[in-house]
Amino acid sequence: MTADQVLSLAPDAASAKAAQGLAAPRAWVAAGIDGALLWGECKGSGATPYQTRVELTTVAYKCSCPSRKFPCKHVLGVLLLHAAGGVAQAVAPEWASAWLAERDAKAQRAAETAAIPRAPADPAASEAAAAKRAKAREARVAAGIDECALWLRDVVRLGLAHAQTQPSRYWEERAARLVDAQCAGVARRVRALASTVASGAGWESRLLDSLGEIALLCTAYGRLDALPEALRADVRRHVGWTQTQDEIVARAFDVVDDRWLVVGTRSEEEERLTVRRTWLRGERTRRDALLLQFAPSGAPVPDPLVAGARLDARLVFVESAAPLRAVFAERGAFEAASAPPDAAPLDEALGAYARAVGGDPWLERFPFVLRDVTPLHTADGRWYVRDARDRALPLARTLREPFVLHACAGGHPVTVAGEWDGRALLPLGLWSGARYTALV
Amino acid sequence: MTATAHGPTPWSALLAAAVVGTQREHPASAPSGDVEIDALLAPPPDESPETDLLRRAAVLGLARRAGTIPLALTVRIDAALDDAAPRCTPEAANDLAQLSAAGADAALLPEWLSLAAQARVRAPEELLPALLAAGGARRELRPAVAAVAGVRGAWLGAQQPAWSYAAGGDDPRRAWNEGDRPARVLALTALRADDSGAARELLVAEWESIAPADRAPFVEVLGTGLSSADEPFLEAALDERRKEVREAAAALLARLPDSRLATRASELATAFVRVKRRVIGAASLEVELPPACTPAMRRDGIEEKPRSGVGERAWWLEQIVARVPPRHWLGMKLEPRDVLALAARNEHAQALLRGLAQATASYADDAWRCAWIDDVSLEPMWRLRALAAGGAPASPAYLAAAARALDANAPRAGEVALAIAGPWNVPFSSAVARYLRAQVVQAGGWEAWQVRGELLRLAGLRVAPGAPGLLEGWPENPAEERVRTALDRFFDTVRFRAAMRDHLKAEQ
């Protein structure tokens, strides 16, 4: 892991700053690395040094300090020291190896528990109950979708101008009803309409676009049985059915082994939840993959994936007509990447997007890794990336600091990785030569 | 599919209908020009206008997104030129990222900038926007920011008005010529820091055109880079009509030991205060209080009306002594500490010591400051006044005296140390650490803690981070939360600064 990547794990700026002070050998009474176990003893102002241990493969960690920040400055500090090559091979002390052994044992127990088929008291009755629950949910969803379709017709009957005059409650109440009907995916799209109507010039067009998407989803759900299997999975997922990691792995819809480069990550707050999106690109297969991680708002996302690094992994894709979302079945450790991934010219990227929405029309974001594009801004303050043939794509207004991208490129062509939503590109990182910079 | 001269596109026609609503307008059906899309647009029988509109919105919306054609954008841009200076190390870049982030503790950024300038490295590109913004908000950082922002920083500065200072757009001469009064004061201060003589000449040339009521702040600017070359102008300013202008000039002249004002004060002092040396026994001071506050005294800024509780003649004496360069009192084998001792024994001790304290501070006289530190019998408030932070950095001798006071745990030693601006040398850094190690967990109530806590905080920022043993031997697990937190922060800051130095080591 590079220092940048370590610092991307910091819960706040103060922790990062404190950690950098600990990135020197003199701050440590002892430190060593033993296989994937990194450990260190840091002298604080107290009597006993703090004991810090990190398991490097999954970046799991524990520290004896009383800090309520995770990871604490000591964990970050020992990782930084390691990144700078300041940690030598050494046999781990008992307190460190015991922690790792206990972790492994726990994982082992969990795996065993999972492997033992639960023997219900009465398999038939339990199965029947599950089937009954599933049927009840189907009915609730169907009713919720019907009601939503009716509401959509009302919206366009009264007109978008009328909709814009409604208070945000108008959208929130509808979203709440959809949540009650267990249609979380549709609810999220409806809730987003409240900000669409307030999004400034061009809101009508964006609103109609979104309404059309939701209506299409309602229609598709109504004729689910007539759809191809993969598209059916997409519709159910977009409506609100979720799958656990284990279910996805067990389904094994599409299993891909490759060396994956993390081209960009972005965290967003969503309904009391931090959602972290991480985009990977396969070196050999050139496949794109999206990993989603969740954490309660304010808490750090566990097991952070570090942008600009790469790792060997087996990914299992979620069933879809345009498979992008994936989960790890197996994974190796991160290593530093030294070159940008294969990047596409603009038209190739747009073509790939068109094919993807041809499969899954509700696809919200698609990864672009664009070759030789120059960021620039026009006199009206709008931002673009432009290729050598003067063809440009607009950048998303949600890009917090476009000048960072601009400063890195300096008016020269660079490789830009970002999310394309069909209208604008949200850059997540760039390579200037072989140097990667994450844009947050 | 945007509207063209040929009429509405299918999308814009649909949008127009959607905005007013199907209850008023049925969406007109416009062909898309694509056979497959048109097939999807054709309504099934018996479809309501609403359903029809939503279905067409879905089809056309998707087609629009899938069929995005890049814009043709021919606006010309000039790429940045290469920078010959190397980028700082990634570790140094990470340090800078913490220091220039919005909301970051701003105290260490100047240190990073100056270390980077010494190492002749530039800031990494991705941090330039935050760094340039920091310089935009803190004018005093601008020259240092512009230097480490380098060629790329200048390139960005040319594109963003708030950062134009990085592109040489912050020319103080222009602000001096064109700005309003506050801008001109700032511009003159900047010019003064750069070339004090040239700045004074600009002021002299414009003096008559500045309204009398506006002149005082411009006089105060001369406090930056003050030298005896400013004396003739300031002496002349003592005859200004406005009181605040005269006071500003007198205050500055009382910092110049060779000024005519200082000479006049010394002559007066000689008339009223004499050192009497007996053949046997100790010397003494013979003091006669000034009989009147003459116009000449008033011209030099001496106030006629005393503070309440002070006799007017003693008050005049105090002000005269405050204007006398303290070296005036030396000679006849008297050292500063002897003079202080004599003054303390005199019946007019209060006026003499107050005046001497003020003079020590005004003339930033190092030998006298040491004497004030060393003589712990003196009234602490006067000692602190004598030691009030002067413009000049503290000399090693002064730091050594302050270290002695700390080691002796002299009254107010902590406050003396607080008043000494950084960076501190190694011996003084160690002395402060020794002092705090012994004092930080002592009882003493809130007031004592305020000084210690503040000293601990500032010590983190000012100590030489390489001073040996700085982080050793601190009290273990202090019971009080505030002490623990402050100690923790001290450790963090010292370690961060040490790391920052490692990361920005100048190339040998």
Architecture blueprint of SSEs:
The complex is a heterodimer of chains A (440) and B (508).
Chain A: H1 3-7, H2 13-21, E1 28-34, E2 37-42, E3 50-55, E4 60-63, H3 73-83, H4 94-115, H5 123-158, H6 160-164, H7 168-180, H8 184-197, H9 203-222, H10 229-239, H11 245-251, E5 254-270, E6 273-282, E7 288-296, E8 309-317, E9 326-331, E10 335-336, H12 346-359, E11 366-377, E12 383-386, E13 391-394, H13 402-409, E14 414-420, E15 425-432, E16 435-438
Antiparallel strand pairs in A: 1-2, 2-3, 3-4, 5-6, 5-8, 6-7, 8-9, 8-10, 11-12, 11-14, 12-13, 14-15, 15-16
Helix pairs in contact in A: 2-3, 5-7, 5-9, 7-8, 8-9, 9-10
Chain B: H1 10-20, H2 35-41, H3 49-66, E1 71-72, H4 90-100, H5 109-119, H6 128-137, H7 142-157, H8 172-178, H9 181-194, H10 196-206, H11 215-221, H12 231-237, H13 243-253, H14 260-272, E2 273-276, E3 284-287, H15 295-299, H16 312-323, H17 336-345, H18 349-362, H19 366-374, H20 380-386, H21 396-407, H22 413-418, H23 426-439, H24 445-462, H25 481-503
Antiparallel strand pairs in B: 2-3
Helix content of chain B: 55-70%
Overall morphology of chain B: elongated
- Regarding quaternary structure, what we see is heterodimer
> How many domains would you count in the coordinates of chain B?
5
Secondary structure: helix percent of chain A: 25-40%
The count of strands of chain A amounts to 16
| Alpha carbon gyration radius of chain A | 24 Å
Strand content of chain B: under 5%
Major sheet size, sense and barrel closure of chain A: 6 strands, antiparallel
What is the chain-wise order of helices and strands of chain A? Answer: HHEEEEHHHHHHHHHEEEEEEHEEEHEEE
Q: Number of helix segments of chain A? A: 13
Q: Gap between N and C termini of chain B, in Å?
A: 62 Å
Mass-distribution shape of chain A: globular
SS element count, helices of chain B: 25
Number of domains of chain A: 4
